[in-house]
Design a protein that fits this description.
Blueprint (H helix, E strand, L loop, with lengths): L1 H26 L6 H14 L5 H8 L10 H7 L33 H30 L3 H7 L1 E4 L8 E6 L2 E7 L2 H8 L12 H4 L5 E5 L10 E4 L3 E5 L4 E4 L4 E3 L11 E4 L3 E4 L1
Antiparallel strand pairs: 1-10, 2-3, 3-4, 5-6, 6-7, 7-8, 9-10
């Protein structure tokens, strides 16, 4: 529709220019704009592929050759099309300008924050390890009341000659025998007798008058009876083990002699256990 209207206008302009050229030729006058309008109309028709001979006709019309309009004259005759707005070369990402995103101030690598977290973690780990080590040390260390019970002082003046006493030390019974001279000689004459766990009397009883042993059978942990058995020492009623006056196993299933606790004799007829 628009192209048809433009063609009609160009044809009207061309017809008007032709009439003006004919009138000027008949009267002998000069028309300066008509040849140029005819030339421009012919040029526009030539671009659209129709009426190519109009250009030659416009150039040959008139008394002499018609010059081609200059660029300024063409711009005045033909309205210029409005220039289009150029598109932006690059697309700008507006993600960081959105309200849901807030860029943090300071070091973008968060190095200080990382160092703070690592330092705090190391401090907590070191404190935890220290507490665990201290708890283990305190657990393995004996308490003051336990250490006090570890050693026991016994007054031997309360044990007459030829009698036995039983005291409790560290949760176990301890046999203390005040031996007579006959018992000492009877025990030492059997040093060379065949035994399951041989040991001389002098080694087990450094002080010949006193025999000190743990009152626990070496078989299954029963408590033997004093002044009983075939060897006048101790007898275990559980499985029939017989111990002599030196605490040596002489008969029965027990594999070892009665255990000797750590002890020493003090001045004033005192015995220190532990």
């Amino acid at each position: 529709m628009m192209r048809g209207a433009a063609a009609v206008r160009r044809m009207a302009l061309f017809a008007r220019a032709s009439e003006s050229m004919a009138t000027a030729t008949a009267t002998g006058q000069t028309c300066s704009w008509a040849p140029r309008a005819m030339y421009f109309g012919a040029q526009q028709h030539d671009k659209q592929g129709g009426m190519r001979d109009l250009k030659a006709r416009a150039m040959s019309t008139g008394a002499g050759a018609i010059e081609k309009p200059s660029a300024d004259e063409q711009s005045q005759m033909v309205p210029q099309a409005p220039q289009s707005t150029a598109l932006p070369v690059a697309f700008e990402d507006s993600y960081y300008d959105k309200p849901h995103y807030h860029r943090l101030r300071g070091d973008p690598t968060k190095r200080a924050y990382t160092y703070l977290i690592l330092g705090t973690t190391k401090f907590i780990a070191a404190s935890t390890i220290r507490v665990l080590i201290l708890n283990a040390v305190y657990t393995m260390s004996a308490a003051a009341d336990v250490l006090a019970m570890g050693s026991l002082e016994v007054d031997l003046s309360n044990v007459p000659v030829g009698q036995s006493a039983t005291i409790k030390w560290r949760g176990k019974p301890v046999f203390i025998r005040h031996r007579t001279q006959d018992e000492i000689e009877y025990a030492r004459k059997d040093d060379d007798a065949p035994m399951r766990d041989p040991s001389p009397d002098a080694l087990r009883c450094p002080d010949p008058e006193w025999a000190v042993f743990l009152g626990v059978c070496t078989h299954l942990g029963c408590v033997p009876i004093a002044n009983a058995g075939d060897y006048k020492g101790w007898f275990c009623p559980c499985h029939g083990s017989h111990y002599d006056l030196t605490g040596r196993i002489r008969k029965g299933p027990a594999p070892l002699n009665l255990e000797i606790p750590p002890h020493q004799f003090l001045e004033g007829n005192k015995l220190l256990l532990g």
